[in-house]
Design a protein that fits this description.
Elements lengths: L1 H9 L6 H32 L3 H4 L3 E3 L2 E3 L1 H7 L1 H12 L4 H18 L3 H19 L6 H19 L1 H21 L1 H17 L4 H8 L3 H21 L1 H13 L7 H6 L5 H17 L19 H16 L7 H28 L11
Antiparallel strand pairs: 1-2
Length: 362
């Protein structure tokens, strides 16, 4: 057993929640951002601003036409797997071999491909690390082991993992349609909390394929955390803090939350209000890329996703046009209400002595 532990240590194989559910999941979201999400944004920009370079077909592969954004989106599986490998500290041959593993697991996982990539890329990466540089023909053995395990697991597991993720996401979206108030509150609060925790709300939403009303509630919860913390802590952190939290991430407050968890109550309460408002009053849906549901105001990706969803619905004929009510709902839920409610709640908690000046200083 001691020899096995020393082997794992030598290979930097750390079997832990931190490594697999925080580091790997967070990296997977970055891989998605750098492929699928950027591809979606490029397509949207090209369509809306009539940029010929972005709307022109630049490749035809297997009978499928691709724009610049389309090619970026098509590489999402490989990007996710390589990002996961990077988070797991994979040596070069393992990291490069994960390109194939990610493509296979994402393709065979279908709509739930991101979750399949997470599981399969982790296993393939760790096995690749285990055999790396253990033989004199490492340049053959390491890629063969990494790709072989990855392709085998993709064939055996990816369809089932993808189907399970899809069913879970569909169940959440169905439940939100049936009980928009309760589910709107739950989804908003849970996804919002996940955004501030050192895990990836974006990757979770992508893995579950969370769109529709549930996606709108998720956006609401994320915005409540980001915009809420940005405005609550403005006196302590100024414009820099407003920008870094408001269009960056509320995760910056995690250290302060550990010191005083009560500072987290205001944005959580706000998300419990804006979530049901999004689902019941404004019927705000996120029908763009599922990853956008977990991004909030980070680079305004959540709002771009909502807007892209409107365009998708119009092109499908399920929506006639973008209305003033659509814009009003999005701005109220994503920006105005969090910016107003969170400071109001926080001032109340300061009067109660739960929160004091300096508790949210970055």
């Amino acid at each position: 057993m001691e020899n096995f532990k020393s082997f794992l240590k030598r290979k930097d194989i750390e079997i832990s929640i931190q490594r697999y559910l925080i580091d790997a999941l967070g990296a997977m979201a970055q891989g998605l951002f750098a492929s699928l999400l950027i591809g979606t944004i490029l397509n949207t920009l090209g369509t809306q601003f009539h940029i010929s370079f972005l709307t022109r077909i630049i490749a035809n592969i297997g009978g499928t036409d691709y724009t610049v954004g389309g090619l970026a989106s098509a590489m999402s599986g490989s990007a996710m797997a390589v990002a996961i490998g990077y988070a797991l500290h994979c040596p070069p041959l393992v990291l490069f071999s994960l390109v194939t593993v990610g493509f296979a697991s994402n393709a065979l996982g279908g709509a739930g491909g991101p979750l399949a990539v997470l599981f399969i890329a982790i296993i393939a990466a760790e096995i690749g690390k285990a055999v790396s540089k253990e033989t004199k023909i490492d340049i053959l053995v390491t890629p063969l082991a990494t790709i072989g395990v990855g392709i085998f697991l993709s064939s055996a597991w990816a369809p089932a993992i993808g189907a399970a993720a899809l069913k879970t996401g569909n169940l959440i979206m169905w439940a939100t349609g049936q009980q928009p108030f309760i589910m709107g509150m739950l989804v908003s609060v849970i996804v919002g909390i996940a955004l501030t925790l050192p895990i990836s709300s974006a990757a979770i939403c992508a893995a579950l394929g969370l769109t529709g009303l549930a996606g709108g509630a998720a956006v609401a919860g994320c915005c409540a955390q980001m915009v809420g913390f940005a405005f609550m802590s403005f006196k302590e952190n100024g414009v820099g803090g407003l920008v870094s939290q408001g269009i960056g991430t509320s995760m910056l407050q995690m250290g302060n939350i550990i010191k005083n968890p009560k500072i987290w109550i205001s944005p959580i309460l706000c998300s419990a209000i804006t979530g049901p408002l999004a689902t019941c009053v404004f019927k705000m849906q996120m029908n763009g890329s599922p990853i956008s549901s977990g991004m909030g105001t980070c680079g305004f990706v959540g709002q771009i996703g909502i807007y892209t969803g409107w365009l998708n619905n119009i092109s499908e004929g399920t929506k006639a046009c973008i209305t003033a009510s659509d814009w009003t709902g999005m701005f109220l839920i994503c920006f105005i209400l969090p910016a107003v409610l969170c400071p109001v709640f926080n001032s109340l908690f300061m009067k109660l002595g739960w929160v004091k000046t300096g508790d949210m200083k970055l």
